[in-house]
Amino acid sequence: MTDWFRANPVLTWFLIFVLMSFVYNRVFRTRKLPILKAAVVYILLALFSVVLLDFQLFGLPIVPSMSVAVLLMFMVRIRYFVEGRSSRKPEQ
């Protein structure tokens, strides 16, 4: 898998950027920013994705680590959904 990431650096950068954007939107964004500030945030995310791409190409598992983080976030969301659904059921 590491060889595929090294063979396709543009796709790897895009994958890192998408994963970073998802984590930013789910964890750090508390309110909607004005359009210019949001553009600055996403430009900085794109620039730092290049740094993480360098780490990935040098052998660190950046994409798998971020994928695990996103998977854990999905699991937490599913857990909240199930708990909310069970708390709305009438007591029997």
Q: How many helices does DSSP assign? A: 4
- Helix/strand-derived category reads mainly alpha
Q: What string, H for helix and E for strand, traces the elements in order?
A: HHHH
**How large a portion of the residues is in β-strands, by DSSP E?**
under 5%
Distance between the termini: 51 Å
Mean pLDDT: 91
According to DSSP, the number of beta strands is 0
Radius of gyration: 17 Å
Query: Roughly how much helix do the residues carry, as a percent range?
Result: over 70%
Report the principal-axis shape: flat
Poorly predicted runs: none
Largest sheet: none
Please characterize this protein's 3D structure.
The chain is an all-alpha fold and 92 residues long. It is built from four helices and no strands. The protein has helices at residues 2-7, 9-28, 35-57, 62-88. The relative contact order is 0.14. The mean pLDDT is 91.
Structure at a glance:
The protein is an all-alpha fold and 92 residues long.
What are the SSEs and their pairings?
Layout: H1 2-7, H2 9-28, H3 35-57, H4 62-88
